[in-house]
Amino acid sequence: MDWLADAARSLNEATGITLTYLYDGYDGGRFLEGIVNTVLLSLACLSASLVIGVVGAFARGAKSAAVRWLVGGYTELFRNTPPLVQMYFLFFGVGALLPTVQNRWGFEEPMLGAWAWAIISLSFFAGAFNVEIFRSGIEAVPRATVEAAESLGYTRLQIYLHVVLPLAFRVCLPALNNNLVNLVKTTTLAYAIAVPELLYMSNQIWSDSLNVPEMMVTLLLLYVGLVGVLVWAMHRWEQAMRIPGFGRSAA
Amino acid sequence: MSAGRTGEVVVSLRDVRKSFGDVEVLRGVSFDVRRGEVVCVIGPSGSGKSTLIRCVNGLAKVNGGSITVMGREVNDPRLDVLALRRSVGMVFQQYNLFPHRTALQNVMMAQVTVLKRPKAEAERVARALIAKVKLEGKEDAYPGELSGGQQQRVAIARSLAMNPEVMLFDEVTAALDPETVKEVLNTIRQLAADGMTCILVTHEMGFAREVADHIYFTDRGVIVEHGPPASFFAEASDPRTREFLGQIL
């Protein structure tokens, strides 16, 4: 990658465009760390929010009114409040109420750090939408198909896992796609509680190297790329799950 | 009940009542089905035929009376409804196959998930049943790639894989083309010949006459008349039966 560093350096000398992360080892390291952390944060929140969606949508159909009410309350709360407010509420509000633990230098510190709260708040945020998205998919599964499974002696959980969920997934993938794309973009909010993700690390770089416009363009293009990878993966998944004679291919 | 019906009673209905809101769909229906018998329920649309057999496996809850299957009271709140459904096979008008699974998987799934059969055994059973309903070569086809008649035969194989004590057929040919009706009726005919206990709700009068041991005619939630096919079609005396048969035959 030396040629890239050389090219960036010459570009800087010729035009004044400063892409330090390509030739300055320190900036390069911070930049890479930011990318890796954004990817890790995204993957953690994607998986956790999917689990919340699947479990929450199942619980929405529970026999117990208390369980249904609880899930309904959760989705309303996290759908109808700004994600940044949620993150602050959890990090500064709930986080401060939790007991502290001693770190290895003997100092008291909060039980959960910024990373943990970022993952929790972003997963709760996207999970609330996923519950609703899965619910829409579940409602599209014909009652008759469920009755067929009931007639075969399936339990409610078995029907959910083997019949309803696989069909609901296929119906709601486009909506799910949208929400997951949104989630990856929303990981930038973790900046606000000092999680060293891409935006946070870029801020450090532009503060030191005074290359604000360059970093803005870089960030924009990088997120296009990151989200592009997700969209491509989701598209592949959608195609792999396509069934002959069902949904789109039936046309 | 006519004379000559012997054998163990598999399904028994006593004064079964069922309402949807203010509408009483079943107003006291009673009959017995014995092992190996084929019973056809016929009657005009809206007479409660489908509701009747949906009550037998607990898909619909009755409001009064009693239904027993192999001595189990379907109306009992402590009933193990899953165990009941394992012993009662049900085939629907719209087949209701699992569209995301192949024909073979459709016949295998419940064996593995519900009966906990090992996969290899479930597959052996499924392949044999698919051959029995004459669909060899279609094992890997998805329901969307099969004709209505083929799907319905897969649905029958799917139910048979659970080794039911009795099979319920809810107007299983009503959604099919005339040509494919025959395929499905042949499958049911073979089942009947094998000694499977069957309750059929049907509009296929010719088939009912040929295959049924006993025919029940329902209208407005009650059994108006019943008898073995020969006497039923020849001697039905109630004006409602005569009118229905006159329209349909």
TrEMBL record, chain A:
Topology versus the membrane: Multi-pass membrane protein
Main location: membrane
Molecular function (Gene Ontology), one example: transmembrane transporter activity
Top-level taxon of the source organism: Bacteria
One of the GO BP terms on file: amino acid transport
Alphabetized CDD domains for the sequence: TM_PBP2
Cellular localisation: Cell inner membrane; Cell membrane
Cellular component GO terms, alphabetical: ATP-binding cassette (ABC) transporter complex
Boundaries of every ABC transmembrane type-1 domain copy: 35-231
Annotated Pfam families: BPD_transp_1 (PF00528)
Keyword field contains Transport: yes
Keywords assigned: Amino-acid transport, Cell membrane, Membrane, Transmembrane, Transmembrane helix, Transport
Transmembrane segments: 39-62, 83-102, 114-134, 215-234
PANTHER family per record: GLUTAMINE TRANSPORT SYSTEM PERMEASE PROTEIN GLNP, MEMBRANE COMPONENT OF AMINO ACID ABC TRANSPORTER
Alphabetical list of NCBIfam families matching this protein: HEQRo_perm_3TM (TIGR01726)
Function text: Part of the binding-protein-dependent transport system for glutamine; probably responsible for the translocation of the substrate across the membrane.
Family label: Belongs to the binding-protein-dependent transport system permease family. HisMQ subfamily.
Protein name per Swiss-Prot or TrEMBL: Amino acid ABC transporter membrane protein 1, PAAT family
Protein source organism: Rubrimonas cliftonensis
UniProtKB/TrEMBL annotation, chain B:
SMART domains linked to this entry: AAA (SM00382)
Domain of life: Bacteria
Keywords (A to Z) from UniProt: ATP-binding, Nucleotide-binding, Transport
MF (Gene Ontology): ABC-type amino acid transporter activity; ATP binding; ATP hydrolysis activity
Gene3D superfamilies reported for this sequence: P-loop containing nucleotide triphosphate hydrolases (3.40.50.300)
Keyword presence, ATP-binding: yes
ABC transporter domain sequence ranges: 11-245
Pfam families found in the cross-reference section: ABC_tran
UniProt keyword Isomerase present: no
Entry similarity comment: Belongs to the ABC transporter superfamily.
Name assigned to this protein: Amino acid ABC transporter ATP-binding protein, PAAT family
Organism: Rubrimonas cliftonensis
